[in-house]
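Run log, item B.
One chain of 148 residues. Sequence copied directly from the ordering sheet:
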Amino acid sequence: MNTRGFTLISALFVLVVLAALGATLAQVSLRQQLGSASEIEAARAFQAARAGLEWGAFQVLRNPAPPAAAPACFGTTSFVPAGLTSFTVTVSCTRTPASGTLADGATALAFFQLVANACNAPSGGACPGSGTPQPTYVERQLVRTVVR
């Protein structure tokens, strides 16, 4: 019986199995790395959206309007928050009622709904991004109502 080359075939089989195992481990590691990076970006997007809400509330509440005048919304604006330069925040303001105020006894109230969108790939300088989907695209939207 001729057994020449049997060791070579066994070594080749072991080499192929180890290469497949290494490729699988590399793929699992890559997916875990992308998942971890996405979670970090999601947390940063949340903080950017939160910064947008704080900015919007400051804009609405900072200058008290004269008693006869109804405070106005700033509309929609986009900016890049300091410290989160990879994100763009788009903040919009809607006033209810659109003109005048609501009364609660002798107190006149105006309601402002602030919506902040933060994303890391804006479209046309504003969020949400509508471009081609990216594996690292992250977007967060937060809503707050401010009463004045």
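Observations after the first pass:
- The CA atoms of residues 104 and 110 lie 11 Å apart.
- Residues 6-147 form one domain.
Flagged for discussion on Thursday.
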